[in-house]
Amino acid sequence: MIVNTPTMLVRTLCSLIAMAATTVVAADFAALPKTATLETDSPQIIALGKKLFFDPRLSATGTVSCNSCHNLMEGGDDGRATSMGVDGLTGGRNSPTVWNAVFQSSQFWDGRAKDLAEQAKGPFVADVEMGMGVHDQVVGRIQQIPDYVREFDNVFGQGNAVTIDNAVTAIAAFERTLITPNAPLDHYLAGDKNALTDAQVRGMDLFQSTGCTECHFGPALNGWDPGDDEAVFVEFPRNLDSSFVRKYDLDSDRGRAEATQQESDAHQFKTPVLRNITLTAPYMHNGNVASLAEACRVMASTQLDTDLSEDEISDLVAFMESLVGEFPPITLPRLPSRSGTSVVVEFK
Amino acid sequence: MIVNTPTMLVRTLCSLIAMAATTVVAADFAALPKTATLETDSPQIIALGKKLFFDPRLSATGTVSCNSCHNLMEGGDDGRATSMGVDGLTGGRNSPTVWNAVFQSSQFWDGRAKDLAEQAKGPFVADVEMGMGVHDQVVGRIQQIPDYVREFDNVFGQGNAVTIDNAVTAIAAFERTLITPNAPLDHYLAGDKNALTDAQVRGMDLFQSTGCTECHFGPALNGWDPGDDEAVFVEFPRNLDSSFVRKYDLDSDRGRAEATQQESDAHQFKTPVLRNITLTAPYMHNGNVASLAEACRVMASTQLDTDLSEDEISDLVAFMESLVGEFPPITLPRLPSRSGTSVVVEFK
C-alpha cells in the first residue's frame, strides 16, 4: 500500500530508461479515458444523482451542496485553502477536485473511502461540511419532497427507495460522467506534435526526468492505471529536512494514520489527480501553498530532495497547463420542490 | 406611493364589479410577458452576466454567489427564513425570488433599489451577504482573472471595462431572461378552460372577491402592469389587531422607512411577485411564516381583516399552484480561472 511496491520499482526503472532515451514512456503518460460510466449508470440514475449533487437542502442550513466545495463551474473545487461548510465552519483539508475523481483508486486525501459512493456519504454528516447529524436526516429531507420520492422509486424500483445508499449510488453515477478528455497532452499523445508548446514539451520531459512520474503517472497522473483496483498511497513529506515542511506545516496532518490509527500509515496520502491542476489553487492537503509554481518547488524539495531553477519551474507549470481538458456541458438541474413549505425550515 | 392611490381605487372598483359579475377582469389577471430583454441585452452581455451571477469568488470567503440565495435550480430563493451569507452570517429579511424579478417596479423588500442593476450592487458589500468591504474589491477580484478582463473589454468596448457598474449591468441583463411564462394560469387566460382545476378556479375567484387583487394584480400579481415605471408600496401589516402580528413579529421591521428614514414610509413594503410562490417558502419579509396556507391566513387577517375557512384557504393555495410557470433551461457557465493561483486566497 505504500511507495516502493514492485510496480513502483518497475516504474522507476522505466523512468530511468526514459531519461536515457529522452522519449515518452507510454506508461507514464496516457490519454484520459473518454468515459467511465458503468453499465448500471442509466440516464435516469445520472439525472437523479445530478440533482442530489447540486441540492443544498441536503445540508443542515440548506446552504451547502456537493457543488459548493466541488464547483463544476470551475476546477471542481472551491478555490479556498480549506472548505467552508454550514454556519461558516471550516475543516483542515483542501477540497480535492471532483473532475476525474472516478480515476482515483481511493477517495479523500487519506483514501478512507474506497469509491465515489462511499466518499459521498461522508460530507453529509461531517460537522464542518453539510452538518447533518445522521444520514437518516438526509433521507428525511428527501422523503419530504414528493417528486424526489417518485424519482427514487422509478430509478431503483418501487417502494421505500429513498435510502442513503441509493442516494450516494446516484451521486456516484453522476460523478462518473465528470471527465475532461482531449487536453493538449491527449492530442500530443495521439500524435499531434503541435499540441504542446516547446516549454510544455520541456516541462513534460523534466516532469519525467526529475522523478515526478514515480508517483504521478497514468492517464490522470495520479498513480492509477485503467483496471487498477488497489488503493496506492505515498509518503508525504519524505524529506523532513526541507525548509518547506515547517513553512507550510506539511507534517502535522498524519494522513492515512488519522483514519486507520495505524502507525505504519503515518503521513501516507493518496496521490492527487493532476488533470486541470492549474484550476485548483491553492495546493497540498492543507491548502497552505498558494501557487502552482510554489507547489512544484515544494514537491521537488520534499519528495525528490531536488532544487529546480526558476526556468525549470516555469516549464513544469507550462506542462501542467497542457492538462486542462474539455469540460462537458452541464444543464442546470431543476430541483423538485415541496409545494408551499420549505424542507429546510421546521414547521411552526 | 402608498396604497389607495387613484389607480388602486379604480382597481378596487374593478374588483367589486368583478365580484358582481363573477368573471375574470383582465386588469387583475394577465399573462406573463414571454420576454423582458432590452435592445442592449446582447447574447454576449447576458453570457457575462450569467457567469458573474454564479461566481462565488466575488464574495469575501469565495463561497457565496448571487445564486446562493437566489437559487435558479429551485424557486429563485434559498428556502430559508433569512439568508446565510459569508461566514455563516444571517440578515433580517427573507430572500425574494429572482425569477420574474424584472417585473418588480422596484427591488428589495423596501424598494430601495430602482432596478435590477442597482439591486445587484447591494449584496456584494453587505456584511452578512457577500461581505466584500467595498465594490473596488469585487472589481479587483475580477481584474485578476484574465479571461474575465477580456470578456468585459469585448462586451463593453476596449479598455478598463471592469467596473462595478458594468458588472451589475451584465448581471441585470442575465436576470431579465429569468422569466417563467406558460403557467396553467396563462393557458387558462388564453382560453384553455381545462388548464385550471375546479379548486383553482374557485381559488382564483376568491383571490379576487376577497380583495387580494387590490395589491396583487397584473401579470406577476405584484401590482405592476407593463409600462409602469413608478414604484408602488403598500402598508403591511394594516390591521394591527391581528393576532398574527405578534405571533410572527410582523411589525418590528419598519420597511421602507428603514431605507428612507421618512416616518411616512413606515411599514411600507413592495408587493412581492406571486408567480411560483409555492416554491419559495417560508414567507413574509422576515420568513417567519412557514407555509403558504398560513401565509394566506396571515394576509387575509392583517391586510383584509378577514377570516377564511380552511376550504377557502385550500382553494387559494390551489390557485397559487397554477402560478408555477415554465423554467427556461440554463446551461451551467464555465467560470474563467486564473491559472495556478486562486483569487480567493491571498498570495503567501
Automatic annotation (TrEMBL), chains A, B:
Top-level taxon: Bacteria
Domain Cytochrome c, first and last residues per copy: 198-324
Binding sites annotated in the UniProt record for heme c 2: 212, 215-216, 299
Pfam families tied to this protein: CCP_MauG
Gene Ontology MF, one: cytochrome-c peroxidase activity
Chain residues that bind heme c 1: 66, 69-70
Keyword Oxidoreductase: yes
Note describing how the cofactor binds: Binds 2 heme groups.
GO cellular component, one term: periplasmic space
Protein's UniProt name: Cytochrome c551 peroxidase
Gene encoding the protein: ccp_1
